Amino acid sequence: MTAGPAMMRLAALVEARETGRARPDHMVALSRDAIARLDGRIHAFAHVAEDPAVSAEGPLAGIAIGVKDIFDTYDQPTCYGSPAYAGNRPATDAAIVALARRAGATIIGKTVTTEFAYFEPGPTVNPHNHAHTPGGSSSGSAAAVASGMVPAAIGTQTGGSVIRPAAFCGVAGYKPSYRLLPTTGMKHFAPSLDTAGLFAASVADVAVFAERLTGRALAAGPVDASTITVGVYFCPQLDGADEAMRLALEQAAEAAVAAGFTVVAVAEPRPLMLAREAHGLIQDCEAGLACGPDLDRFSDSMSPRLREAIRSGLMVSPQDYDDARRLAKRGRGAARTLFDDVDVLLTPSAPGAAPEGLASTGDPRFNKLWTLMGTPAVNIPGFSDAAHMPLGVQAVARFGHDRTLLSVASRLEQAFAEAR
Predict the structure, then answer these.
(1) In-domain check, residue 284
(2) Residue 418 forms part of a structural domain
(3) Quick check: pTM over 0.90?
(4) Are the CB atoms for 203 and 415 separated by under 8 Å?
(5) How far apart are CA 351 and CA 164, in angstroms?
(6) Residues near 3 by Cβ (< 8 Å), separated by ≥ 6?
(7) What value does the mean pLDDT of the chain take?
(8) Which of 2, 167, 245, 290 is the most exposed place for a label (fewest CB within 10 A)?
C-alpha cells in the first residue's frame, strides 16, 4: 500500500511522555496545530475546543481525543449531527467522555457524525482521496485519526459504523464486546446494538488506547502463533465483495500461514445467516422507539432519510420484533459453538474500498452480524486496491475475548506488513 497521510502513533506519544521526551501540553499542541492546518479540507470536526484542559497526570495525559458528536460533553456542543439539536449543551459528560477525562485525556473536539448516527452523511471527506466517502457513521473520528489530526478518537457502531470507516480511511477501528465500553450519555439509535468503539493508527495503538481508557488488560501481548487457529469466514456476502477485497482476504490468509498460525476455512452456519437478516428489523424497531420522540418534536429539522427510518421503525409489530430477537439469540448460540474451533475469524471489513462520492457512507453487510452478536471486532489496515485506496480485513473473536482478538490482530497486522 502506498503511503497515506502521516498519522500520530498513540503508543509512541505515550512512551515519549513517560520517558520525559515530551510534555503533555506540547503533545496536545501538535493536535491543535494539525487541526488548524488540515481540518479546513477534511471537515472531520463538528466543533473544536477553544481552550481544552490539558492534564499532566493519568495514563492518557497529553493524548488529544476526538469524540463522536453523539456523546454528551458538558463543555462543548453536542448536536448529534442534526440541525434539530443545533447549539445543544448537555449538563454532564457521557460516561465514556468522563472516563477519558479521568484518565487524563484532552477532549480536543467533537467529530462529525451522520445524523443520529444513521445514514445521512456529514461534510467529512476521505483523507486518502477527498472525492471518496470516509464511511460512517463515525466519519469524523476515522478521518481525524487517518489525517494525523489526533492519535485517537471515540466512535460508535450500530451496524458497521466503526469497522467500515476505519477500513475506508486506513486505520484501526475496534468495536469491543457489547457493553465493555459504557454508552450512558450517548444519543441512542438502537440500544441493544449501539456499541462504543475506538480508533487509532494501528491495532497496537488502539489496544493501548483501550487499556489506558478502561483500566482493563487489553494492550496487545505476545502471541504464540502455533497455538492459535484463524478461520477465514465464508458467507454469502462474499459474493458481493469486489475482486480487490477478495484478493486482500486471500493475501491475509497467506500471511497468517506464513506467520505460523493454523488457518482453516469456516462456512457460515445457517443460524448466523438468519441472524444477519434479523439485524435490520431489530435496528428499525428500536430506532422507532428511541427516536420517535425526536420525530414528534423535530420532524421538520430532520433529513427525509432519517424521518423515513424512524417512521418505518414505529410500524414494526411487537411480534415481528420478538421473532427477530429470537433469531438473534439462536445466532449467538451458534457463534459460541463456532468459536469452539477457531480463536479468530477473518472476513472483509467492507465490500471494497471507499466508494466515490459523499452521498453514501458505504455498505455494512460484513459488520452488522458481529454487532448483533456482540462479539469484539477490529479492522486491520494494511491493504489497498489498484487506486491506492485502503482496504481493511476484519478480525472477530468470541464474546469477552477482546485481548485475544487485539493481540492476534496486532500480530496479523505485522504479518501483513512483512508480506508486502
Answers:
(1) no
(2) no
(3) yes
(4) no
(5) 9
(6) none
(7) 97
(8) 2
Three-class DSSP labels, 149-207: CCCEEEEEECCCCCHHHHHHHCCEEEECCCCCCCCCCECCCCCCCCEEEEEECCHHHHH
Q: No. of H helices and E strands in the chain? A: 12, 11
Q: What is the pLDDT of residue 348?
A: 98
Q: Maximum CA pair distance of the chain?
A: 61
Q: Which DSSP letter does residue 383 get?
A: E
Report, as residue numbers or ranges, the catalytic residues. Answer: 68, 137, 161
Residue 118's domain spans which residues? Answer: 10-214
Amino acid at 178: Y
- Residue 263 phi, psi dihedral angles, 5° rounding: -120, 130
CA-closest candidate to residue 200, choices 257, 129, 151: 151
Q: Flag whether pLDDT at 4 surpasses 80.
A: no
Averaged pLDDT, 94-108: 98
Report residue 240 as a C-alpha cell: 458481493
The β-bridge relationship of strands 390-397 and 64-68 is unpaired
Beta bridge partners of 152: 65, 200
Q: Which three cell numbers stand for residue 252?
A: 491475509
- Give yes or no for residue 420 having a pLDDT over 90: no
| Tens of pLDDT, residues 316-356 | 999 999 999 999 999 999 999 999 999 999 999 999 999 99
End-to-end CA distance of the chain: 8
- Indicate the number of domains in the chain: 1
Pair 375, 335: CB distance under 8 Å: yes
336 lies in a domain? no
Cα gap 358→343, rounded to integer Å? 37
Percentage of residues of the chain with pLDDT beyond 70: 99
In a domain, 199, yes or no: yes
Closest CA to 256 of 420, 377, 413: 413
**Domain CATH for 177:** 3.90.1300.10
Q: Is the dihedral of CA 268, 271, 277, 281 positive or negative?
A: negative
Residue 94 near residue 185, CB atoms below 8 Å = yes
Place of cell 457524525: 113
Q: 146-181: b or e for each residue (b if 16 or more CB lie within 10 Å)?
A: bbbbbbbbbbbbbbbbbbbbbbbbbbbbbbbbbebb
Look at the block and give the residue holding cell 472476513.
347
